[in-house]
Design a protein that fits this description.
single chain, about 450 residues, alpha+beta, two-stranded antiparallel ribbon, 22 helices, 11 strands, elongated
Length: about 450
């Protein structure tokens, strides 16, 4: 129902009034819609204020001029309008769906605001606000659902899911992000939608996973709902087969005090997939259209975790690991992957401790100490073939035959240096290489 009583939680920035004034001066109706209104009513900050209007895309571009508008989605009625600070705001013409294939809708303009709100996914996203009058248009009870902390589809829940299969994943993310319960009919529709989620592109599924990792404080809740609904089984079987520990550990991956680069998102994804074999991780990442770099990053970190989890945990629990062992771990993990490995390991071990599995798990203090030691060693000691005082050219000049044997020789020399960094001089390594040749190594 309309409400003209000003809501103190709705305090849009000056840019919203600036754009609203531009529309009203041109004689058009305009409303703030979407996530900014929802988040403001929840008391959460939100920077992306978007609009809905009865102006067509061409009329929007005429009202604000070509220099201030960007045709970000003309076919769907969306134009980007730049405010005076150069910030882009999406403006979408009131519309209703003509037909949809479950992902892409054909829309028709000329609808009213209430018709436009009726095509939205959930009631909490179907609330409009007038910056000029303070009126709130809420035909589907979105504010009441915000107060009750309930996620409910607009109108007929199965129909909303059929219109856009991505809504099932969005609903799970919203519920986990805000700590809402999913209304029974909406949850039933999400579960019934699961077998059809394969119509979504790998890129869309990846983006939804990334948003979950970015926006949800405790991703394990969302990931649990993925599994319960059947979405994980349909989209990423590797997630469906993941253990409870790996899902819970995603909540630990960004806790204060842990190294954060290259970011919470990819770290949490690595933690989530850390039960899967590296080749399965690589396959899943490729299906989800991860970049080649991120695919290799995920598979590499998880491979190191599988090889070293029990070894590092065991030695750290038993006492202070010796320097040679630390160097060997760094050599296996890779100098540039060191921080990421400890993020993953810290998350998994933290979850084990939190769930009464302290036996065989290093303490948080021991892990921090080991991480600091490893960083110092990685920066100051030879742990990589490139750190050796000799290279392939030196060995060839010393009589080592080029080919695979050369690479094996360099690896054998690094193995000796990992045990005793003092051996890393050109003269000593050439002598060691000569001995290896004599032994037929």
């Amino acid at each position: 129902m309309p409400s003209q009583r000003p809501d103190p939680r709705l305090q849009p920035p000056p840019a919203v009034f600036e754009i609203t004034a531009g529309f009203e001066k041109a004689g058009f109706e305009v409303w703030c819609v979407g996530g900014a209104v929802r988040d403001a009513l929840l008391g959460h900050p939100h920077l992306d204020w978007d609009f809905a209007t009865n102006a067509t895309p061409d009329q929007v571009r005429t009202a604000f001029g070509r220099k201030r508008t960007i045709p970000v989605g003309i076919a769907f009625g969306t134009v980007g309008v730049l405010d005076s600070a150069g910030v882009l705001h999406e403006v979408t013409t009131f519309r209703h769906d003509v037909r949809t294939d479950g992902r892409h809708a054909e829309v028709e303009f000329g609808a009213s605001l209430d018709e436009d709100l009726a095509r939205r996914d959930f009631t909490i996203n179907a609330v409009a606000y007038s910056a000029t009058t303070g009126e709130i248009r809420d035909p589907f009870g979105g504010r009441a659902d915000l107060e009750r902390r309930v996620l409910r589809a607009v109108g007929d829940a199965p129909q909303r899911m059929r219109e856009d299969r991505l809504r099932a994943l969005r609903g799970i993310r919203f519920a986990a992000r805000f700590g809402f319960e999913i209304e029974a009919a909406t949850w039933k529709a999400i579960c019934e939608s699961a077998p059809y989620l394969t119509r979504l592109s790998g890129e869309r599924v990846r983006q939804e996973l990334e948003k979950t990792m970015d926006q949800v404080q405790a991703p394990s809740k969302a990931l649990g709902l993925w599994r319960e609904s059947g979405a994980a089984r349909a989209l990423v079987p590797e997630l469906d087969g993941a253990g409870e520990e790996s899902r819970r550990a995603t909540d630990c991956a960004a806790r204060p005090g842990l190294p954060r680069r290259p970011g919470r998102r990819l770290t949490r994804l690595a933690v989530l997939l850390s039960d899967a074999a590296p080749d399965a991780v690589e396959s899943a990442a490729m299906r989800l259209r991860f970049s080649k770099h991120d695919t290799q990053w995920l598979a590499g970190i998880i491979g190191s975790w599988h090889r070293l989890d029990a070894i590092i945990a065991g030695k750290t629990v038993a006492g202070t690991p010796d320097a040679a062992s630390v160097r060997r771990w760094i050599a296996l993990i890779g100098r540039t992957q060191l921080g990421a490995f400890f993020r993953l390991a810290s998350a998994r071990w933290s979850d084990r401790r939190a769930n009464g599995l302290e036996r065989g798990v290093p303490s948080a203090a021991a892990v921090r100490s080991l991480y600091r030691r490893s960083l110092r060693a990685a920066l100051t000691e030879p742990v990589d073939l490139r750190d050796l005082a000799v290279d392939g050219d030196d060995l060839r000049k010393a009589g080592v035959t080029p080919g695979p044997r050369l690479g094996k020789m360099l690896s054998a020399l690094l193995d000796q240096v990992l045990d005793d960094p003092a051996l890393n001089t050109r003269d000593q390594l050439l002598v060691a290489a000569k001995h290896l040749v004599e032994r037929g190594a």
